[in-house]
Amino acid sequence: MKYLKNRHLFKMYEYVQPFINYSVPREKVIYGDKVLVIAPHQDDEAIGCAGTLIKHVQNGGRVEVIFCTHDTSERMEESKKATLIIGSFKNYYMQFSIRNLYNNKEFKYSLFSLINKIAPDVIFLPFWFDKHEDHRAVSVVLMDIKKEINLNFMIYSYSIWTTLNPNCLFDISDVWKLKKKAIECYKTQIITRDYVKIARGLNQYWGEIKTPPMQYAETFFRATVKEYIDLGRKIFK
């Protein structure tokens, strides 16, 4: 599954259709207290879902982040600053090499162990078809280890490289400046690509087309863990 084929895309559109509404519902709160964010790389959490996470913490919820890969010590320090802005005071650094998560048994069992230990109410992770192999690998591993996890949690899948078909939306207008500040912590990354501009454009787009419009919005594909895993099995069977 390293490279996605067109038939998988056709299946994806077929099977996600029951989850999608013509008008994406606007949600005000995450239904659950403990949120676990799975970030394949140090910056995914800031770009993909920082606004929603910040609002969750402001509402009294908890956030913890798992970083799956390690790049440089400088980038790790940047992640610590970014997560402080988000409100996550407990982070986990797995330190696998970038582009080394697929078919990695050590990654599978490390993630399995952490999810069981943390016992989250909600997990944020990249969507099945996000265009980076490390991002897709997280969903593949989750599909595999679900057989061994007796936890029920909600999935909110986010996008970084590829847009998704969302079925829920959060207004992040009042915390956009904090999200921007979190992204800007990753100086080693924004020096080569303007992730603030990317996030701003995407969040403004979804905010503008919603009625009534808002300044900035983050969107997600939301499903129970069972629904999300069953979807993956249908698409990639």
Question: In words, what does this structure look like?
Answer:
- This protein has helices at 6-16, 44-58, 73-86, 105-118, 133-145, 176-184, 187-190, 195-209, 225-236, and strands at residues 26-27, 34-39, 62-69, 90-96, 122-126, 154-158, 168-171, 217-224.
- The mean pLDDT is 89.
- It is globular, with a radius of gyration of 17 Å.
- It is an alpha/beta fold and 237 residues long.
- An 8-stranded mixed β-sheet has the order 1-7-8-6-5-2-3-4, sandwiched between helices.
Order of helices and strands: HEEHEHEHEHEEHHHEH
How many structurally independent domains?
Answer: 1
Find the structural class using helix and strand composition. alpha/beta
Major sheet details: 8 strands, mixed
Classify the fold: give the CATH topology.
Rossmann fold
What is the name of the CATH class?
Alpha Beta
Annotation field: number of helices: 9
Q: Describe the global form.
A: globular
| Mean pLDDT across all amino acids | 89
Sheet-strand content, in percent, reads 15-25%
Q: Quaternary arrangement of the chains shown?
A: single chain
Radius of gyration: 17 Å
Which labels suit this protein?
about 240 residues; alpha/beta; Rossmann fold; eight-stranded mixed β-sheet; 8 strands; globular
Mind sketching the topology for me?
Layout: H1 6-16, E1 26-27, E2 34-39, H2 44-58, E3 62-69, H3 73-86, E4 90-96, H4 105-118, E5 122-126, H5 133-145, E6 154-158, E7 168-171, H6 176-184, H7 187-190, H8 195-209, E8 217-224, H9 225-236
Parallel strand pairs: 1-7, 2-3, 2-5, 3-4, 5-6
Antiparallel strand pairs: 6-8, 7-8
